[in-house]
Amino acid sequence: MKFTDVLGHQHLKNHLIHTADGGRIPHAQLFVASEGAGALALAIAYARYVLCGNDNTACNLKMDMYGHPDLHFIYPTITTDDVKSKPKSADFLPLWKEFLNENPYANLFDWYKKLGYLNKQGEIRVEDAQEVLKTLSLKSYEGGYKILIIWQADKMNIATSNKLLKIIEEPPQKTLILLVSENEENILQTITSRCQVLRLGKLSDEIIAETLISKHNVKPQKAKIIAHQAQGNFSKALEILHDDNEFPFGQWFVDWVRTAFRAKGNPSAVLGLVNWSETIAATGKETQKKFLLYCTEFFRQALLLNYKAKDLVYFDPGVENFNIEKFAPFVNGNNIEDIYKELSDAIYHIERNGNAKLILTDLSIKLTRLIHKKID
Which residues contact 120 (CB under 8 A, 6 or more apart)? Predict the structure, then answer.
């Protein structure tokens, strides 16, 4: 991954190149971006530039294979059949390199799919911090910088954060630490305060469409539609292009709201909500969270349509006999904040290992009341 391979963010690329060329490299930097905007890709490109410059062929070959001895990664891990306790990033390095080669814009959900465990939530554990402290205390192999990239830095647990705090504050000479996160607010303030923060905006529809046309041979009209649907998320654009979503989120959502409509004043229909909750609860926690985020966006789209902002609406659940225009009047200013809150609360409790069936059943019963709430 070179700067020329990173989509958009030209002003940040120029800034990073300028600071590297001028020898003014902050020792700790935090790249913050929404999913699919390219924070990891930009961090890797920056690391390559610092290590290799413009024309070091041997160095670039190592970077192409993510095998440079002075570039280190840590990222969320989980226990597996092969790694039954205290997993750390080094245990999954071959899979991690495959993951980066396949799509450096991929998200945490994609990483868990790569590991083959969607029913677990990963974290960056203290074992990773201990390994990193040993590694960064040594001299660099090639005499230049040693670089550590912490992907999904908000997944560091408290012990890990505290362990790394000292080295982030005062790293050894010629050591560069790059944190990458989609959720800056979940990183300890004591860590973010010691980093230079770079915030990446979402990718424009034009950049995504141009990339789909030039690198994926997509016809211009189709590329334009996909880019609009992707909402600045290049990984999502590729998912739409290849139709890679193995879970029928659209059908789940439609089944949910239809059952919720029927359940008001009809106790027998509540059983349908319980059955629906069981179906979603049978999937992994990351799938549940991703689906609830999908629901949040669907409600937002319905609200936009209700408020006559049709040009901003791009959702199509692909479900027969479901018309979002007929659904939109039930999403309005009188209930949207409560709907968002209940979805957010459900995600929060699922993240903290609550009983998914109970959480989703409770959410469903509340939705039954909220979607029948009329405008004052």
Answer: 78, 79, 112, 284, 285
Q: Is 215's pLDDT higher than 60?
A: yes
> Taking the C-alpha atoms of 88, 78, 32 and 236 in order, what is their torsion angle to the nearest 10 degrees?
130
- pLDDT, one tens digit per residue, over 43-52 is 999 999 999 9
Report d(CA 136, CA 150) in Å as an integer. Answer: 13
Taking the alpha carbons of 221, 226, 229, 232 in that order, is the dihedral positive or negative? Answer: negative
What is the reported pTM? 0.74
Q: Whole-angstrom Cα distance, residue 251 to residue 249?
A: 6
Percent of the chain with pLDDT over 70: 96
SS3 329: helix
List the structure tokens of 44.
Answer: 């890797």
Which tokens belong to 258? 């239809």
> Of 218, 136, 233, 249, which Cα lies nearest the Cα of 182?
233
- As a whole number of angstroms, the distance between CA 44 and CA 42 comes to 5
Strands, E assignment, 44-131? 71-74
Contact 41, 16 (CB under 8 A): no
Which residues make Cβ contacts (< 8 Å) with residue 104, sequence separation at least 6?
1, 38, 40, 41, 44
Q: Which CATH superfamily is domain 3-199 in?
A: P-loop containing nucleotide triphosphate hydrolases (3.40.50.300)
Kind of pairing, strands 28-32 and 175-181? parallel
Q: Which CATH architecture has domain 249-370?
A: Up-down Bundle (1.20)
Sequence-separated (6 or more) residues with CB below 8 Å from residue 339: 299, 331, 367, 370, 371
Q: What is the pLDDT of residue 374?
A: 66
Phi, psi of 87 (to 5 degrees): -70, 150
Inform me whether the pLDDT recorded for 55 exceeds 60. Answer: yes
